[in-house]
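Annotated sample (chain length 123).
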Amino acid sequence: QVQLVESGGGLVQAGGSLRLSCAASGSIISINAMGWYRQTPGKQRELVATITTGGSTNYADSVKGRFTISRDNAKNTVYLQMNSLKPDDTAVYYCNANGVMSTSTWPRRFDYWGQGTQVTVSS
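Output written by the structure step:
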């Protein structure tokens, strides 16, 4: 099993900053990509930012220049620094990780989600 534990959400005024963290643990052999997604009621979950083991990043157009994703490979942890927050950034933010895990038999690929953390930006 692999567990993803998120932290850092909360309430902030527009223009403020928050930093999200997500730590992966469990029977991990290797992690390929980690990322952040967000979802608001009635809408599909959307990509915010992803980062590979090698450090390649991908951002949604709506957050480019404001959000920065980073990763500590030794700690299997991914961060999302969110600056210049807007009310439209209000959502539940989910961490995702995919890679290879060990089992009682053969290694297998995994793709897991965290439980989500609420980010609320007031105007």
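Annotation: The chain has no helices and eleven strands.
Annotation: The radius of gyration is 15 Å.
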